[in-house]
Amino acid sequence: MDINLLFWNSSIDDMKRGYVHDREKEAYVCLVCGEVYEEGLIYQMGEKFVTPEKRMQLHIQDDHGGMFSYLMNFNKKHTGLTESQTQVLECFFKGMSDRETARSLTLTESTVRNYRFKLREREKQAKVFLAIMELLGSRSVQGAPDEQMTVHKGSSVLDEKFGITEKERKEVLTKYFDGSGMLINFPGKEKRKVIILTEIAAKFKPGTEYSEKDINGILEKVYHDYVMIRRYLIDYGFMDRSADGSRYWTREQR
């Protein structure tokens, strides 16, 4: 299951919830980490027993901190939010008044009101743009370009490098990986690097922290120069690490 693809193909309502209902599998699937809770089963939470959907809701909140926090920690490339806007939104989400927000962020109340107004304007723009794109997607255009490859949520590489079709992705993976899943050699072209790194990044579970030893153990099964791959995963925004290099995680988690 490609969780990254599942996330980007989900509806806004599903994205807000953080999970989808898979009718074929008769289960609820977490859009963050791929955790599955099957229908027809009852799950125990301490002394309580809950339904699969309720268990998933608790999982989203307990293990991922809720979807608001998760989405707010996305790369700016995906949210379009500045650091200041992010801080203001976090205060609003906590239910803080304009006065409380201003005091917390050392701003004037008029500045906070201006932020609120501009964010509402952006919301209107986003709704119109989404409607336009859905109308565009509903048209069956003959000779339309191949379906674009879905890019890792945490990646910070420039958009120009993401014009990758599914056909290109398959061709590159076939060329650079052998039958055992080992990388034959690392490409020099940027577009191919993105494809390869996206494939490798999928080996790491969102929401999980790894030690450097863990990272190396996973990467050395992919390529002999695992140190180089580790560096590229960080440089290209697929992963991040603590200041002392002792902990690593997929970028969208922070």
Low-confidence parts, pLDDT < 50 over ≥5 residues?
156-161
The oligomeric state of the chains shown is single chain
Describe the main β-sheet briefly.
3 strands, antiparallel
The N- to C-terminal Cα distance equals 23 Å
Strand line-up in the sheet with most strands: 1-2-3
CATH topology of the largest domain: Arc Repressor Mutant, subunit A
CATH class of the largest domain: Mainly Alpha
Please give the domain count: 3
The tally of helices reads 12
Radius of gyration: 21 Å
Structure summary, number of beta strands = 7
CATH architecture of the largest domain: Orthogonal Bundle
Helix content: 40-55%
Commentary on this structure:
There is one protein chain. The chain has 254 residues and is mainly α. The chain folds into three domains: 3-66, no CATH class; 74-138, Orthogonal Bundle (Arc Repressor Mutant, subunit A), CATH 1.10.10.10; 159-253, Arc Repressor Mutant, subunit A, CATH 1.10.10. It has helices spanning 3-9, 12-17, 52-64, 67-72, 76-79, 83-93, 98-105, 109-138, 166-176, 190-201, 212-219, 226-235; strands at 19-22, 27-30, 36-38, 43-45, 48-50, 239-241, 248-250. The strands form three sheets. The protein has a three-stranded antiparallel beta sheet. Strands 4-5 form a two-stranded antiparallel ribbon. Strands 6-7 form a two-stranded antiparallel ribbon. A hairpin with a 5-residue loop joins strand 2 (27-30) and strand 3. The radius of gyration is 21 Å and the shape is globular. The model is unreliable at 156-161 (pLDDT under 50).
